[in-house]
Design goal:
Two copies of one chain form a homodimer. The first copy, chain A, has helices at residues 2-8, 11-22, 27-32, 38-50, 69-92; strands at residues 25-26, 54-59, 62-67. Chain A is built from five helices and three strands; from the N terminus they run H-H-E-H-H-E-E-H. Helices cover 66% and strands 15% of the residues of chain A. Chain A is an alpha+beta fold. A three-stranded antiparallel β-sheet of chain A has the order 1-3-2. Chain A has one domain (2-68): Orthogonal Bundle (Arc Repressor Mutant, subunit A). The longest helix of chain A has 24 residues, at 69-92. Chain A binds a DNA duplex through helix 3 and helix 4.
Chain lengths: 94, 94
DNA sequence: CCTCTATTTAGACGCCTGTCTAATTGTCTC
DNA sequence: GAGACAATTAGACAGGCGTCTAAATAGAGG
């Protein structure tokens, strides 16, 4: 869980996830959307991969990245549980 | 949104949120749950407050902290939208 | 095998962050 | 007002993080 939230803490990486939510993309296509060198982008990819937020597969010279929604659901659930806890407490003492 | 995710990137702060989900607590009570000095805890409180993830009110010498679920819902929604995007794409190309 | 393209790895650098100790602020009680 | 208690602010410091340039790897195609 820590790797996931660490990965989400950077705005560039969150934007990468948003783009990948729309469609699978190659490293190069993704890089075009940002004012940053390719090595920097590659670093962000690796952080997201380590957190298992994205998956990659090579196709010829290019590498295709895609979103792994399973891990995103963990984030979703984490936030939900916290809110649910707080709500439960409110109901007990109205 | 950036302050929120930055705040969530630290495990100590996520644990603080979990505790506050169960019940409102004073700074001192919270600090007891962690192996850390009170100034360090105070720093974490301030990061969470800046992100508006928690609210505080003074009562005598003590300061009570509570969860602000509104902002947590933003996180919830953010994750949801991303997952929804990915799902929509899957359905279009089955 | 050489070269071109796509991408990553290595290493360096400055800034941001989490932690600490010491000092300060705010509040209650005598 | 003095002392005690709760909590924060100030300042210092090590380690982590995001970015860059330069070099390396991987594959495609002559």
């Amino acid at each position: 869980m820590n790797l996931i939230f660490k990965a989400l803490a950077d705005p560039t990486r969150r934007e990468i996830l948003r783009l990948l939510g729309r469609s699978e993309m190659t490293a190069g296509e993704l890089a075009q959307h940002f004012d940053m060198t390719k090595p920097s982008m590659s670093h962000h990819f690796s952080v997201l991969k380590d957190a298992d937020l994205i998956r990659s597969r090579r196709e010829g010279q290019q590498i295709w990245y895609s979103l792994n929604t399973t891990v995103l659901q963990d984030v979703f659930t984490w936030a939900w549980d916290l809110i649910a806890d707080a709500r439960r407490k409110e109901v007990q003492t109205p």
